[in-house]
Amino acid sequence: xxxxxxxxxxxxxxxxxxxxxxxxxxxxxxxxxxxxxxxxxxxxxxxxxxxxxxxxxxxxxxxxxxxxxxxxxxxxxxxxxxxxxxxxxxxxxxxxxxxxxxxxxxxxxxxxxxxxxxxxxxxxxxxxxxxxxxxxxxxxxxxxxxxxxxxxxxxxxxxxxxxxxxxxxxxxxxxxxxxxxxxxxxxxxxxxxxxxxxxxxxxxxxxxxxxxxx
Amino acid sequence: xxxxxxxxxxxxxxxxxxxxxxxxxxxxxxxxxxxxxxxxxxxxxxxxxxxxxxxxxxxxxxxxxxxxxxxxxxxxxxxxxxxxxxxxxxxxxxxxxxxxxxxxxxxxxxxxxxxxxx
Lengths: 214, 118
Prior knowledge:
The complex is a heterodimer. By secondary structure, chain A is α+β, with helices and mostly antiparallel strands.
Protein backbone atom coordinates (compact mmCIF):
# COMPACT_ATOMS: atom_id res chain seq x y z
CA UNK A 1 0.00 0.00 0.00
CA UNK A 2 1.33 3.44 -0.93
CA UNK A 3 0.22 6.43 1.08
CA UNK A 4 0.31 10.20 0.82
CA UNK A 5 -0.28 12.16 4.02
CA UNK A 6 -0.46 15.92 4.17
CA UNK A 7 -0.80 18.52 6.91
CA UNK A 8 -2.52 21.60 5.52
CA UNK A 9 -2.35 25.04 7.09
CA UNK A 10 -5.08 27.19 5.62
CA UNK A 11 -4.78 30.84 4.72
CA UNK A 12 -6.62 33.35 6.84
CA UNK A 13 -10.06 33.96 5.42
CA UNK A 14 -10.03 30.85 3.22
CA UNK A 15 -13.43 29.28 2.56
CA UNK A 16 -12.80 26.08 4.48
CA UNK A 17 -15.91 24.20 3.38
CA UNK A 18 -15.26 24.92 -0.30
CA UNK A 19 -11.60 23.99 0.04
CA UNK A 20 -12.37 20.66 1.68
CA UNK A 21 -15.05 19.92 -0.88
CA UNK A 22 -12.73 20.73 -3.79
CA UNK A 23 -9.82 18.68 -2.43
CA UNK A 24 -12.02 15.70 -1.61
CA UNK A 25 -13.40 15.82 -5.16
CA UNK A 26 -9.91 15.35 -6.62
CA UNK A 27 -9.70 12.07 -4.71
CA UNK A 28 -13.29 10.96 -5.19
CA UNK A 29 -13.07 11.39 -8.95
CA UNK A 30 -10.05 9.13 -9.39
CA UNK A 31 -10.17 5.34 -9.27
CA UNK A 32 -6.50 5.15 -8.34
CA UNK A 33 -7.43 6.53 -4.92
CA UNK A 34 -8.47 3.65 -2.70
CA UNK A 35 -9.16 5.85 0.29
CA UNK A 36 -9.17 9.52 1.22
CA UNK A 37 -9.85 11.19 4.57
CA UNK A 38 -9.68 14.89 5.32
CA UNK A 39 -10.13 15.81 8.96
CA UNK A 40 -9.59 18.96 11.03
CA UNK A 41 -6.72 18.79 13.51
CA UNK A 42 -7.56 18.81 17.19
CA UNK A 43 -6.92 22.04 19.05
CA UNK A 44 -5.15 20.36 21.98
CA UNK A 45 -1.46 20.71 22.65
CA UNK A 46 0.72 21.46 19.67
CA UNK A 47 -1.00 19.88 16.71
CA UNK A 48 0.38 21.41 13.54
CA UNK A 49 -1.81 22.68 10.72
CA UNK A 50 -5.57 22.87 10.29
CA UNK A 51 -6.33 19.69 8.37
CA UNK A 52 -4.80 16.25 7.87
CA UNK A 53 -5.37 14.67 4.46
CA UNK A 54 -4.67 10.97 4.12
CA UNK A 55 -4.76 9.23 0.75
CA UNK A 56 -3.88 5.67 -0.05
CA UNK A 57 -3.25 3.77 -3.26
CA UNK A 58 -2.53 0.19 -4.25
CA UNK A 59 1.06 1.11 -5.06
CA UNK A 60 3.34 4.00 -6.01
CA UNK A 61 2.27 3.79 -9.65
CA UNK A 62 -1.29 4.44 -8.56
CA UNK A 63 -0.18 7.52 -6.65
CA UNK A 64 1.71 8.75 -9.70
CA UNK A 65 -1.38 8.17 -11.84
CA UNK A 66 -3.45 10.32 -9.48
CA UNK A 67 -0.70 12.97 -9.30
CA UNK A 68 -0.68 13.30 -13.10
CA UNK A 69 -4.47 13.56 -13.33
CA UNK A 70 -6.74 14.83 -10.51
CA UNK A 71 -3.68 15.40 -8.35
CA UNK A 72 -2.79 18.32 -10.61
CA UNK A 73 -6.01 20.02 -9.56
CA UNK A 74 -5.27 19.21 -5.91
CA UNK A 75 -1.84 20.78 -6.26
CA UNK A 76 -3.29 23.86 -7.91
CA UNK A 77 -5.66 24.26 -4.95
CA UNK A 78 -2.89 23.74 -2.38
CA UNK A 79 -0.55 26.12 -4.21
CA UNK A 80 -3.13 28.92 -4.14
CA UNK A 81 -1.88 31.27 -1.39
CA UNK A 82 -5.39 32.63 -0.89
CA UNK A 83 -6.52 29.17 0.20
CA UNK A 84 -3.54 27.31 1.66
CA UNK A 85 -0.59 28.82 3.51
CA UNK A 86 1.56 25.72 4.02
CA UNK A 87 1.58 22.03 3.17
CA UNK A 88 3.77 19.37 4.77
CA UNK A 89 3.50 16.27 2.67
CA UNK A 90 4.98 12.78 2.65
CA UNK A 91 4.60 9.84 0.27
CA UNK A 92 5.57 6.37 1.46
CA UNK A 93 5.07 2.66 1.22
CA UNK A 94 3.48 1.34 4.42
CA UNK A 95 6.26 0.40 6.80
CA UNK A 96 6.33 -1.91 9.79
CA UNK A 97 2.86 -2.01 11.32
CA UNK A 98 1.45 -3.26 14.60
CA UNK A 99 -2.12 -3.72 15.75
CA UNK A 100 -3.87 -4.72 18.95
CA UNK A 101 -7.34 -4.35 17.45
CA UNK A 102 -9.12 -2.38 14.75
CA UNK A 103 -10.75 0.86 15.81
CA UNK A 104 -13.77 2.27 13.99
CA UNK A 105 -13.15 5.70 15.48
CA UNK A 106 -10.59 7.40 17.69
CA UNK A 107 -7.59 9.70 17.46
CA UNK A 108 -5.10 9.48 14.62
CA UNK A 109 -1.70 11.05 15.28
CA UNK A 110 1.24 11.43 12.96
CA UNK A 111 4.78 12.60 13.48
CA UNK A 112 6.83 13.58 10.46
CA UNK A 113 10.48 13.05 11.27
CA UNK A 114 13.65 14.28 9.63
CA UNK A 115 16.78 12.34 10.57
CA UNK A 116 20.23 13.86 10.22
CA UNK A 117 21.88 12.98 6.95
CA UNK A 118 24.92 11.84 8.94
CA UNK A 119 22.97 9.16 10.85
CA UNK A 120 24.46 5.74 10.12
CA UNK A 121 22.39 2.82 8.85
CA UNK A 122 22.66 0.85 12.10
CA UNK A 123 21.37 3.79 14.15
CA UNK A 124 18.52 4.38 11.71
CA UNK A 125 17.52 0.72 11.89
CA UNK A 126 17.62 0.80 15.71
CA UNK A 127 15.60 4.02 15.77
CA UNK A 128 12.98 2.45 13.49
CA UNK A 129 12.83 -0.71 15.61
CA UNK A 130 12.43 1.19 18.88
CA UNK A 131 9.76 3.41 17.35
CA UNK A 132 7.83 0.32 16.29
CA UNK A 133 8.43 -1.14 19.76
CA UNK A 134 6.58 1.77 21.40
CA UNK A 135 3.31 0.19 20.32
CA UNK A 136 4.24 -3.03 22.10
CA UNK A 137 4.93 -1.29 25.40
CA UNK A 138 2.54 1.65 25.54
CA UNK A 139 -0.95 0.33 26.21
CA UNK A 140 -2.89 3.25 24.72
CA UNK A 141 -1.38 2.81 21.23
CA UNK A 142 -3.88 0.55 19.48
CA UNK A 143 -2.49 0.56 15.93
CA UNK A 144 0.86 1.92 14.80
CA UNK A 145 3.22 2.16 11.84
CA UNK A 146 6.71 3.50 11.17
CA UNK A 147 7.45 4.12 7.49
CA UNK A 148 10.32 5.50 5.46
CA UNK A 149 9.35 8.49 3.35
CA UNK A 150 10.10 8.24 -0.35
CA UNK A 151 8.68 11.61 -1.32
CA UNK A 152 8.67 14.51 1.13
CA UNK A 153 8.19 18.24 0.95
CA UNK A 154 8.27 21.45 2.98
CA UNK A 155 10.28 21.98 6.18
CA UNK A 156 11.78 18.45 6.44
CA UNK A 157 13.23 16.95 4.39
CA UNK A 158 11.07 14.30 6.03
CA UNK A 159 12.65 10.85 6.19
CA UNK A 160 10.06 8.98 8.29
CA UNK A 161 6.45 9.10 9.36
CA UNK A 162 5.33 7.62 12.69
CA UNK A 163 1.57 7.05 12.81
CA UNK A 164 -0.55 5.87 15.70
CA UNK A 165 -4.21 5.37 16.55
CA UNK A 166 -5.67 5.81 20.04
CA UNK A 167 -9.13 5.31 21.48
CA UNK A 168 -9.26 8.86 22.84
CA UNK A 169 -7.11 12.01 23.27
CA UNK A 170 -5.95 10.93 26.76
CA UNK A 171 -4.29 7.90 25.22
CA UNK A 172 -2.04 10.26 23.30
CA UNK A 173 -1.72 13.29 25.57
CA UNK A 174 -1.35 11.40 28.85
CA UNK A 175 -0.44 7.72 28.51
CA UNK A 176 1.83 8.09 25.46
CA UNK A 177 3.60 11.15 26.83
CA UNK A 178 4.06 9.87 30.39
CA UNK A 179 5.11 6.31 29.57
CA UNK A 180 8.80 5.64 30.36
CA UNK A 181 9.45 4.14 26.94
CA UNK A 182 8.89 7.66 25.63
CA UNK A 183 10.87 9.92 27.98
CA UNK A 184 13.27 7.32 29.37
CA UNK A 185 14.23 5.41 26.25
CA UNK A 186 13.33 6.52 22.74
CA UNK A 187 13.70 10.18 23.59
CA UNK A 188 17.50 9.88 23.37
CA UNK A 189 17.28 9.87 19.55
CA UNK A 190 15.46 13.22 19.70
CA UNK A 191 17.44 14.84 22.52
CA UNK A 192 20.40 17.01 21.48
CA UNK A 193 21.92 16.39 24.94
CA UNK A 194 22.13 12.66 24.28
CA UNK A 195 25.00 11.14 22.33
CA UNK A 196 22.53 9.10 20.25
CA UNK A 197 20.72 12.21 18.95
CA UNK A 198 19.87 11.85 15.23
CA UNK A 199 16.50 13.60 14.83
CA UNK A 200 16.88 16.92 13.08
CA UNK A 201 13.28 18.07 12.90
CA UNK A 202 9.73 16.91 13.63
CA UNK A 203 6.19 17.98 12.84
CA UNK A 204 3.27 16.42 14.68
CA UNK A 205 -0.45 16.64 14.25
CA UNK A 206 -3.54 14.69 15.19
CA UNK A 207 -7.21 14.48 14.40
CA UNK A 208 -10.29 12.40 15.07
CA UNK A 209 -10.98 9.62 12.62
CA UNK A 210 -13.93 7.45 11.77
CA UNK A 211 -12.18 5.31 9.19
CA UNK A 212 -8.94 3.69 10.26
CA UNK A 213 -5.71 4.63 8.50
CA UNK A 214 -4.45 1.08 9.02
CA UNK B 1 8.14 2.88 46.45
CA UNK B 2 6.86 6.34 45.56
CA UNK B 3 3.36 7.65 44.96
CA UNK B 4 2.37 7.69 41.26
CA UNK B 5 3.59 10.92 39.68
CA UNK B 6 6.09 11.49 42.48
CA UNK B 7 8.72 8.94 41.50
CA UNK B 8 12.27 10.23 41.38
CA UNK B 9 13.49 10.19 37.79
CA UNK B 10 17.25 10.41 37.55
CA UNK B 11 19.41 11.78 34.75
CA UNK B 12 22.90 10.35 34.62
CA UNK B 13 25.57 12.20 32.69
CA UNK B 14 28.42 9.75 32.19
CA UNK B 15 31.40 11.73 30.91
CA UNK B 16 34.72 10.17 29.98
CA UNK B 17 37.17 13.05 30.13
CA UNK B 18 40.11 13.56 27.84
CA UNK B 19 43.28 12.40 29.64
CA UNK B 20 44.22 14.87 32.39
CA UNK B 21 41.21 17.14 31.82
CA UNK B 22 38.52 15.73 34.15
CA UNK B 23 38.93 18.34 36.89
CA UNK B 24 38.78 21.15 34.34
CA UNK B 25 35.71 19.56 32.75
CA UNK B 26 33.94 19.24 36.11
CA UNK B 27 34.69 22.89 36.97
CA UNK B 28 33.26 24.01 33.65
CA UNK B 29 30.21 21.73 34.08
CA UNK B 30 29.59 23.21 37.54
CA UNK B 31 30.01 26.84 36.52
CA UNK B 32 28.27 26.76 33.14
CA UNK B 33 25.86 23.84 32.95
CA UNK B 34 24.63 23.41 36.51
CA UNK B 35 22.95 26.85 36.84
CA UNK B 36 21.10 26.28 33.54
CA UNK B 37 19.90 22.84 34.58
CA UNK B 38 18.79 24.01 38.03
CA UNK B 39 16.83 26.75 36.30
CA UNK B 40 14.91 24.05 34.43
CA UNK B 41 13.87 22.41 37.71
CA UNK B 42 16.53 19.70 37.96
CA UNK B 43 18.09 18.90 41.35
CA UNK B 44 21.76 17.96 41.48
CA UNK B 45 22.04 14.73 43.46
CA UNK B 46 25.57 13.31 43.05
CA UNK B 47 28.91 14.08 41.43
CA UNK B 48 31.01 10.94 41.33
CA UNK B 49 34.41 10.30 39.85
CA UNK B 50 36.38 7.17 39.15
CA UNK B 51 39.07 6.51 40.03
CA UNK B 52 38.95 8.88 43.02
CA UNK B 53 42.06 10.83 42.10
CA UNK B 54 42.65 13.25 39.24
CA UNK B 55 44.58 11.31 36.63
CA UNK B 56 47.23 13.27 34.71
CA UNK B 57 47.78 11.03 31.70
CA UNK B 58 44.67 8.87 31.59
CA UNK B 59 40.93 9.45 31.61
CA UNK B 60 38.76 9.91 34.65
CA UNK B 61 35.10 9.09 34.33
CA UNK B 62 32.54 11.45 35.83
CA UNK B 63 29.01 10.46 36.82
CA UNK B 64 26.76 13.44 37.46
CA UNK B 65 23.28 12.57 38.66
CA UNK B 66 20.24 14.83 38.56
CA UNK B 67 16.65 14.20 39.53
CA UNK B 68 13.13 15.45 38.96
CA UNK B 69 9.94 14.30 40.65
CA UNK B 70 7.64 12.52 38.22
CA UNK B 71 7.33 12.24 34.45
CA UNK B 72 5.40 15.50 34.21
CA UNK B 73 8.35 17.34 35.76
CA UNK B 74 10.63 15.60 33.26
CA UNK B 75 8.55 17.06 30.41
CA UNK B 76 8.40 20.47 32.09
CA UNK B 77 12.21 20.52 32.20
CA UNK B 78 12.36 19.47 28.55
CA UNK B 79 9.97 22.26 27.57
CA UNK B 80 12.04 24.85 29.47
CA UNK B 81 15.11 23.63 27.64
CA UNK B 82 13.41 23.88 24.25
CA UNK B 83 12.61 27.51 24.98
CA UNK B 84 16.25 28.28 25.81
CA UNK B 85 18.72 26.18 23.81
CA UNK B 86 21.76 27.86 25.41
CA UNK B 87 22.75 24.44 26.85
CA UNK B 88 23.94 23.49 23.38
CA UNK B 89 26.68 26.10 23.75
CA UNK B 90 27.91 24.34 26.87
CA UNK B 91 28.24 20.96 25.16
CA UNK B 92 29.98 22.54 22.17
CA UNK B 93 32.51 24.32 24.39
CA UNK B 94 33.03 21.27 26.58
CA UNK B 95 33.56 18.90 23.66
CA UNK B 96 37.39 19.27 23.51
CA UNK B 97 37.53 18.07 27.14
CA UNK B 98 35.34 15.00 26.53
CA UNK B 99 36.43 11.67 25.08
CA UNK B 100 32.90 10.27 25.09
CA UNK B 101 29.66 10.86 26.90
CA UNK B 102 26.31 9.29 27.46
CA UNK B 103 23.11 10.46 29.12
CA UNK B 104 20.80 7.89 30.67
CA UNK B 105 17.45 8.15 32.41
CA UNK B 106 16.91 5.91 35.43
CA UNK B 107 14.59 5.16 38.31
CA UNK B 108 14.62 3.11 41.47
CA UNK B 109 13.64 -0.44 40.55
CA UNK B 110 10.79 -0.22 43.07
CA UNK B 111 9.27 2.60 41.00
CA UNK B 112 9.22 0.74 37.66
CA UNK B 113 5.71 -0.59 38.15
CA UNK B 114 4.30 2.78 39.12
CA UNK B 115 6.07 4.60 36.27
CA UNK B 116 4.68 2.13 33.75
CA UNK B 117 1.14 2.38 35.12
CA UNK B 118 0.07 5.47 33.16
